[in-house]
Design a protein that fits this description.
Elements (H helix, E strand, L loop, with lengths): L5 E6 L6 E5 L4 E6 L12 E3 L5 H12 L15 H11 L7 E2 H7 L6 H9 L12 E2 L12 H15 L22
Parallel strand pairs: 1-4, 5-6
Antiparallel strand pairs: 1-2, 2-3
Helix pairs in contact: 3-4
Amino acid sequence: MKHKTVLYTQAVSPIGNLLLTSDGAALTGLYFESHKAKPEWDAEWQRNDAMLEQACKQIALYFEGRIQRFDMDLEVKGTEFQLRVWEALRGIPFGTTVSYSELAQTIGAPRAVRAVGAAVGRNPISIIVPCHRVVGSNGSLTGFAGGLERKRWLLEHERTVSLQVIPSTPDFNQIGRKQCLVPV
């Protein structure tokens, strides 16, 4: 079976280097260095900074507190259930959290809390599909593929930014590449 070529780049962030992957048409992954479900590197991978430049710029703007929503094509592969969970994650507003139980209710599967948790943990596009916004029923920080310290940082970042007045959405083409790419 022939593997598809994976295009990738790496970006610097305040919470560590990020690996971005693409199928050539859409973003397929955003992973932390220590991501638990990071894909295995193979010979079919090709670095392509230009293909992922817009995604990288938006991520840099997110970390600068200049955007709260991402505008890019995403392509994720998963079960029908996982896709429902990941789509529901995208509906969680910036700067807020929901519990796994609330997320299960949102997708119409209130008794599938554990399965929802497993699907959240397999989210391949961290930050953009905001799995960090899901917390325990008592508000506690629980599981995060990038580690709880990163989850805590992301939630605090969003709370801080939410308290500020955000200017209109910037022109992504005016943001320089050097802000978000790091040579490897």
